[in-house]
Amino acid sequence: MEFELAIFIERAPDEVFRFLRDLYQLPFHEHPVVPVYEKLTPGPVAVGTHFREVVRTSPFTRLVILSEVTALRPEAYLAYRWRGPGMHGELVYEMVAAPGGTELAQRQTLILTGPLRLAAPFIGRAFAARLATRLAGIRAILEGRARFGETG
Fold first, then answer.
1. Does residue 11 sit within a domain?
2. Taking the model in full, what pTM does it have?
3. Domain membership flag for residue 149
4. pLDDT digits (tens, 9 = 90+) for 80-98
5. Which residues are 104's β-sheet partners?
6. What angle is formed at CA 66 by the lines to CA 64 and CA 70, rounded to 5 degrees?
């Protein structure tokens, strides 16, 4: 499955890029859906940097997602390859300067494996909705209309 979304953010491309690149520095322990997002590789974020994310899918279920930065171009492009139980894919953010801010495009692939393939239509709809909510949340945080963790 492939998902493509775009949103305008009233912030300069360098601010949007730094926010996305440095997400791991936010207080994830306060986040209702992603209580853990940690950088596993020492040093600055670069191609090859690894991350570990824990995602709550229900009150009693959590998934561990491992990701790696595969491409990085300051103020313009950030790409990851990720994998979790029964799924893997890629995530790409592209930032383009626009009058008054930044056009942020997000492309994400989701490849389901094993038994999860049977639920692909349901998972695809839920995943698409989650991506749209996340992108709107990023905009709200960067524009100062929400605090981290409030947007889910």
1. yes
2. 0.89
3. no
4. 999 999 999 999 999 999 9
5. 7, 95
6. 160
- Band of the pLDDT at 149, cuts 50, 70, 90? low
Are the C-beta atoms of residues 13 and 97 closer than 8 Å to each other?
yes
In a domain, 151, yes or no: no
Measured distance CA(125)–CA(119) in Å, rounded:
10
Backbone region of residue 149 per phi and psi (left: phi > 0; alpha: psi in -120 to 50; beta: other values): left
| Residue numbers of the domain that contains 71 | 2-142
Residue 30, token pair as written in the block: 């306060």
Within a domain: residue 152?
Answer: no
Residue with token string 């894919």: 89
Instruction: Examine the pLDDT at 4 and tell me if it is beyond 70.
Output: yes
Give the angle subtended at the CA of 29 by the CAs of 51 and 116, to the nearest 5°: 55
Lowest mean pLDDT, pick from 34-38, 69-73, 86-90, 147-151: 147-151
Q: For position 83, which CATH number holds?
A: 3.30.530.20
Single-letter code of the amino acid located at 26: L
CA triplet 135, 139, 142: central angle to 5 degrees? Answer: 135
